[in-house]
Design a protein that fits this description.
InterPro entries: Dimeric_a/b-barrel (IPR011008), DyP_N (IPR049509), Dyp_perox_C (IPR048328), Dyp_peroxidase (IPR006314). The chain is built from 17 helices and 14 strands. With 511 residues, it is an alpha+beta fold. The strands form 4 sheets. Strands 7, 8, 9, 10, 13 and 14 form a 6-stranded antiparallel beta sheet that branches. It has a 4-stranded antiparallel beta sheet with strand order 2-3-1-4. A two-stranded parallel sheet has the order 5-6. It is globular, with a radius of gyration of 22 Å.
Length: 511
């Protein structure tokens, strides 16, 4: 039975001492020995399981799938393959103050606490608080790790990639990110804030002066979000070697699409990097009251729809899903909560219908809709592209919209999405999705405009067509302050990280 989630608010919110020569197998055994015998520490999972998202595999099914694919789930950090399944999370960005001390503490204090994929799949082996770690390029250099990981976006950092991503400069960035001083990020997750706070305080005490906090983003998961926030994981791919039974319509990708050095990863990597993954982090401010006002002021006018229903339809067509998670391709005029909550149906579509021409028809789903821009399905032919996929593992942050904010249609308290995506190749994953698809006015067809949710165009006005199903050529102009993800990207300069395997930490990073 799936766990219950909070009631949702009526707004869109779219969318975590060991010897140096350990082998992967030896690492797993040594870590278990270090921790002592695994004992039940929970009676209720720290993970959430929204109805709309595909179920996680059981530990038995995942172990069998991993064995068949020669994948070691005991060596892979838990956030990489699990996806968006957290209720509370804290991102703790740090700098390394003393590399010698940090390496020793990394081995003795952090490594034994890192939560693996296998551990997360079984309540009896879940920790009270989940912990994972990832390092920036400057962080690896601080640890004297100079090997090229074969990823230019990671090596350069997102701060140097502004032009490629269409971001409108760094003027709105959190100041701590404007440089290379962030060496890594610790991900804490649990079901209560007290658990996280206790774990943070304990680890800070244990680490002493070996590192220093640069910035943290907390109070995550507290917003009572509409389903698109928890349902951003609907389209997460099934990974061979992990997902035992893909849901209908779920993309089936090789493990090497997400994990470095596995089948499907064609880039030359250092051997120690195997089973790591590149983490892209973005802190995205969202102007929710302003977005709601935009919808209210611009309803789609169709006979039989009230103005409120027309406003809801506009928002759904911009995203490509209703608040319940139901795709507009299958529910073109009205939300269908039963469809949205059914993982065997809510992802089982291709945008192709026997009574319509795929290349021209937008009555069901606009070509510019967020879910169509980032996963075009049959628009690029069948079988579907299996290269440009990411594992989303982000979470919302900030309070719900207050009465004063709703009445004034003005944001006064920051809220948004802590976007996290894992992939083995940032150029094929996040960067490709953002630059080549979402930011292109001519994808998948000429003149449709950019993705209305995440399309950036360096802050310029964005003209989009197809949002009105009665007039596919009608233009909708989104300007600063009027769109959902508009130009307020509060992003890190070093917002690309590498999440190494446990054996890599033991054999390469902590010696």
């Amino acid at each position: 039975m799936k766990l219950a989630i909070n009631n949702v608010a009526s707004t869109f919110f779219i969318l975590a001492g060991i010897a140096s020569a350990l082998s992967i197998q030896d690492s797993s055994s040594a870590l278990k020995h270090k921790r002592g015998p695994l004992k039940p520490r929970r009676v209720q999972s720290l993970l959430i399981n929204p109805d709309a998202q595909p179920d996680l595999p059981t530990v038995q099914a995942a172990t069998a799938a991993a064995s068949a694919a020669s994948l070691n789930l005991d060596d892979i950090q838990g956030d990489v393959l699990i996806g968006m399944k957290k209720n509370r999370e804290l991102f703790y960005f740090f700098s390394i103050a003393n590399s010698t001390d940090f390496k020793a503490k990394l081995a003795s204090e952090i490594l034994p606490l890192i939560t693996t994929t296998t551990q997360l799949l079984d309540v009896s082996t879940q920790p009270v608080t989940f912990l994972n770690i990832a390092f920036s390029q400057s962080g690896l250099l601080a640890l004297n790790v100079t090997d090229s990981l074969g990823d230019s976006a990671f090596a350069g950092g997102q701060f140097k990639d502004l032009g490629n991503l269409g971001d409108p400069g760094s003027v709105n960035w959190v100041t701590e990110f404007a440089g290379t001083g962030i060496h890594g990020v610790l991900l804490f997750a649990s079901d209560t804030d007290d658990n996280i706070n206790e774990s943070v305080a304990s680890l800070e005490s244990a680490m002493g002066n070996s590192f220093a906090k640069v910035y943290s983003l907390s109070r995550l998961g507290l917003v009572q979000l509409p389903s698109p926030a928890t349902n951003d994981g609907i389209s997460n791919p099934a990974v061979i070697g992990f997902t035992a039974n893909p849901s209908p319509g779920q993309a089936n990708v090789s493990s090497g699409s997400i994990l470095v050095g596995e089948s499907g990863d064609s880039v030359t990597r250092p051997s120690w990097a195997k089973d790591g993954s590149f983490l892209v982090f973005r802190q995205l401010k969202q102007l929710v009251p302003e977005f709601n006002k935009f919808l209210t002021d611009n309803p789609i006018i169709i006979d039989g729809l009230t103005r409120e229903q027309g406003s809801d339809l506009l928002g759904a067509r911009m995203v490509g899903r209703w608040k319940s998670g139901a795709p507009v391709d299958l529910a073109p005029l009205f939300d269908d909560p039963a469809l949205g909550a059914d993982p065997n149906r809510n992802n089982d579509f291709t945008f192709q219908h026997p009574d319509a021409v795929l290349a021209t028809n937008q009555t069901r789903c606009p070509f510019s809709a967020h879910i169509r821009k980032t996963r075009p399905r049959a628009d690029l032919g069948t079988p579907e592209d299996a290269v440009h996929h990411i594992m989303r593992a982000g979470i919302a942050y900030g309070p719900e919209v207050s009465t004063d904010e709703a009445n004034s249609n003005t944001t006064s308290t920051e809220r948004g999405l802590a976007f996290v995506a894992y992939q083995s190749n940032i150029g094929n994953g996040f960067r490709f999705l953002q630059r080549t698809w979402a930011d292109s006015p001519n994808f998948v067809h000429s003149g449709v405009g950019v993705d209305p949710i995440i399309g950036a165009l360096a802050g310029a006005q964005r003209v989009i067509t197809g949002l009105d199903p009665t007039n596919s050529t009608k233009q909708t102009t989104l300007t600063t302050g009027k769109s959902f993800f508009h130009t307020l990207w509060s992003l890190a300069a070093e917002s690309t990280f590498f999440s190494p395997s446990l054996s890599a930490i033991a054999s390469k990073l902590s010696v």
